[in-house]
Design brief:
Growth Hormone, Chain: A, mainly alpha, about 425 residues, globular
Length: about 425
Amino acid sequence: MKELFKDRKFVFLWLAQAASGLGSTFATFSLSWLVYEMTGSKMAMGSIWLSFMLPNIIMQMFAGPYLDRWDRKKVMIFSEWFRAAVFLIPAILLPFEFLESWHLYIISVAIGLAQPLFYPASMAYIADILPKDKLTKGNSILEGTGQLMTLLGPTLGGILISAFSVELVLYILILALGIAGLLLMMNPSSKTQRVEQKESWFFQFKEGLQFYRVYPVLFWVGIMMMFINFSSGAAQPMFLPYITDELGGTAFQYGLFTSAFSLGMLGGSLLTGILKEPKNRKRVMLGSLFIDGVLFIGLAWTPYYWLALVFSFGQGLFAIIFNINNTTLYQRRVPEHLRGRVFSVRILLAQAGIPFGAALGGMFAEAFSIPLLFVVLGGLMVLTNLICWMHPIFEKLNDQEIKLDVDNRDFMAKK
């Protein structure tokens, strides 16, 4: 890994993603805290998540084809600075007691429009600046650093809210996102393909979709993730009331619970970076998500806060092992001129289940209970992975990389 830190481009990207990770974590933490503090409603927690995810998915759909036309570095900078500007609204209104719950929904929608620009552009940019044989190590460092920031963020956010106020958390997140944009400015522009302006959005989006006919297993991985993320989308807004209501925790303990998940992701990132790439990628990817589902069920049954921390750590560890292997799989197979739009289709497929989960999860928890919700969600994850394990298409996860002729989009003829 040492040689990566001698690469100036990688170092600036690494520092920028660290600042972005801290800012993004503070953003999620502070927004969740403000919503629940102002409303005390599980339905409101689900609906605020829904107001973020719906514009997120719409933006993925319409912006994806153009990410290969735009400068990816500038796209990332715009995403960081726009989000920093949006959070000036609560930072200014809250001290004067002018902030109302509807402001938070506007902020959530705005963030939902800007944030999905960053991740696919970032994935494509990493593949631009690193050679293929360094991608797994590079992804592990970046994922690990991002998770280190999200590890520190919730705990630090809980301490700052308990000792000071949520306003301080807002000020720090604005500063962190601003710094991330400045660091990205230090890097060169990406190697974007010069796509002719006459190509329509539909043509470019269709071109991204055609890639999945070359690698159909990646399409089915996206469908699988749609069901997995349905569970994640339903559970994520419920973690705050789960800790404070079900386990009798505080703001600090909620932050620590979220940090345990991130600590697990950090451990999984380090483990993936140290170990050799798996020969049986199917076993590693599907097995990781299966264990994640079992740990979800464990959260439902434990009455002990410390055990919930252990389960959260385990979920983070196995989730990141899947994510790193899945991301590397894409980066090695997607032609350069299609990376932005193919990664956007990937995220669109994976995230399509989240808003439905967020909406139904809040209603289910309000009508029944959070523990019962977690049992249902964990069972869905386990069942989904068992079905995928038995389906022959997922054997293709172990196939070697196919060399495609990507000049002039010749891969389109190989569908």
